[in-house]
Structures are given as structure tokens and as C-alpha cells.
Amino acid sequence: MIYLRETFDAGVSRTHRDELYEIYRQEVLPAASRLHVKLWGSWFIALGTGNWNQMFNIWAFPDWAAWGEFVHKQLNEMQYSDLERRMLKYRRVATTELMMPQPYWKEGELIVGGTHGTGMLYVWESINAEPERWAEYMKGLKEEAIPSSGPRLNWIGSWQTAPGGGRNYQIFNVWSVADWNTWAGNSTVPAEAGNTENERQQNRAIQRNWAAKAMEYRREMSHHLMVPTPLSPFK
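^ that's the sequence the OP posted. Answer follows.
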């Protein structure tokens, strides 16, 4: 699978975002389906964590051939060019980035909980790794960070920049969070994985160790909180 991350800022008013959302719902999704492109996830950036009126989509392509067909049709067929022109009326800035899934992510086993209206949050994590520590970061993420994270923070998916898709040695993760209280640390749910206190203590030690090592492996890291749009498969 090849993934396309799409981020754009709608116009200065909420109306612009709503109009753009309707174009996606009524026209972009059906057009993507005809090209065998799947909407993997769709979010609005939570207020206070990014640009106002920002929307964030991830599209899944079966392979590079499907990506090439998509690009060709977008550039050469009138219906897609006209759709692009109409969307420009409602958005100010748009960026895209090609991504490949990390090899340890078994996409077919993806299970996501939560329901719209219950405050489900998602966290987009972007890491620029040190080139010589890239492999170590990937190994630690797989063997330490993900297994030790508890029910407060659930790992959903992980990618790296595809060839020609952006900055090299970049890693992306998506995590789910139950609600705002959980994100703020005010939840009674354990922050560590484990069925017993002893297991949770062991995972706390793993998390502390990983946090210290991760600072050596990366150049920079950023996070954005996101809430699902009604279009999103994550509900």
C-alpha cells in the first residue's frame, strides 16, 4: 500500500471549511472510489493545536501503479481538473506527502474503537530521526514504545516517507486517546500496559528508558491533536 497525507487550510470562515467538506463528501470520495483509492482517515485539527480550519486526510492506494494512474487522471482529465479548481475557492494552503507503512505494521489487523460524539481524540506524531540512528529508532518504537503504551494511548498506524515523497528519515505515527481528560492525565485508566501492578511497573521502566534513548535518536518531533470528521472510518 502507498499512502498520501493531505493537509489543507480552509478559508478564513467556518463556512469555507463546511463547503470544502461537502465537496469531499459528495464528489471527491466517489471519484476516489472509482480509482480504487480508499480514504484511510479524515480529521479536523483540534482547536489550539494547529492552524484554524485545518483538515487532514490520509488516502490509501493499492500500489505504485494506482498512484501513477491517479496522478495521470488528475493532470489530464477535465473532470478532475475542474474539481481541483472549485476546491481552490475554499482553501488557502494545501500540502501532500507520500508515505509507506512501516514493515511491522500489520494493516489488515487494524482495529479502532470509539464513537463520534464521545470526545475521541487522535494524535499525529511526526519525527525527524538522526540518519545514523534511524534503524535504532525504528527498533525501539516497535519493541519498546508501542508494547509498553497503555490503554490511555493506543497505537493505530506508522509510516515513513516514501521515496520522493518528502524529507528523508521521517517517521509518522497515529495514536488514539479516549478523551480530553485522558490526554490531560486526569484518567483513572493506567497509563502503562499490563494486567498487574508488577507488569505496569515494568512497562513504566521501559517507557522511561525509551524516552531517554528517543531523544538521542531524533532531531525534532511535533504533535497535533485531531478529531475525526464524519467522513472518517475512525468513529
